[in-house]
């Protein structure tokens, strides 16, 4: 089954669950459990995000980008840490780098955020949480 078929199947499932909110709640609970298991098992390492110079660049200390799909910025100095941003590439229908997921920038990472947008020619879309 190719990715397009998977997405179409997912859409059908979401539409059928739309009627029953409890099913959506169960899906998110499963995701939370899976995430907890991956963190405990270290299935997807986050060692770059945990480097001392990068820790302060993470808005949330418990939501770190995975090393295997980390977005890297071009170096603007000889300091390797200037290439770090809390962001991951997400696979899409047309390839492994179809989307970028990132946290809202901190005041200290705002320039890095816009540098990433520029370097990767990103179309920006805001996802608001709780009306913020």
TrEMBL record:
Domain of life: Eukaryota
SMART domains documented for this protein: PTPc
Pfam families noted in UniProt: Y_phosphatase
Biological process, per Gene Ontology: negative regulation of T cell activation; T cell receptor signaling pathway
Tyrosine-protein phosphatase domain location: 24-124
Xref: InterPro entries: Prot-tyrosine_phosphatase-like, PTN12/18/22, PTP_cat
EC number: 3.1.3.48
PROSITE patterns xref list: TYR_PHOSPHATASE_PTP (PS50055)
Keyword terms: Hydrolase, Protein phosphatase
Keyword Hydrolase recorded: yes
GO MF assignments: non-membrane spanning protein tyrosine phosphatase activity
Cellular-component GO terms for this entry: cytoplasm; nucleus
Enzyme class: hydrolase
PANTHER family: TYROSINE PHOSPHATSE N18, PUTATIVE-RELATED, TYROSINE-PROTEIN PHOSPHATASE NON-RECEPTOR TYPE 22
Descriptive protein name: protein-tyrosine-phosphatase
Source species of the chain: Nannospalax galili
Classification of source organism: Eukaryota, Metazoa, Chordata, Craniata, Vertebrata
């Amino acid at each position: 089954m190719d990715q397009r078929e998977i997405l179409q199947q997912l859409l059908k499932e979401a539409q059928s669950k739309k009627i029953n909110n409890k099913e959506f709640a169960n899906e998110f609970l499963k995701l939370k459990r899976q995430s907890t298991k991956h963190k405990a098992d270290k299935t997807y390492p986050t060692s770059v995000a945990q480097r001392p110079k990068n820790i302060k660049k993470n808005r949330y200390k418990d939501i770190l980008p995975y090393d295997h799909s980390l977005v890297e910025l071009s170096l603007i100095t000889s300091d390797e840490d200037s290439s770090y941003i809390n962001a991951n590439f997400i696979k899409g229908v047309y390839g492994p780098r179809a989307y970028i997921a990132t946290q809202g920038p901190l005041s200290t990472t705002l320039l890095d955020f816009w540098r990433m947008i520029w370097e990767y020619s990103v179309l920006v879309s805001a996802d608001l949480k709780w009306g913020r």
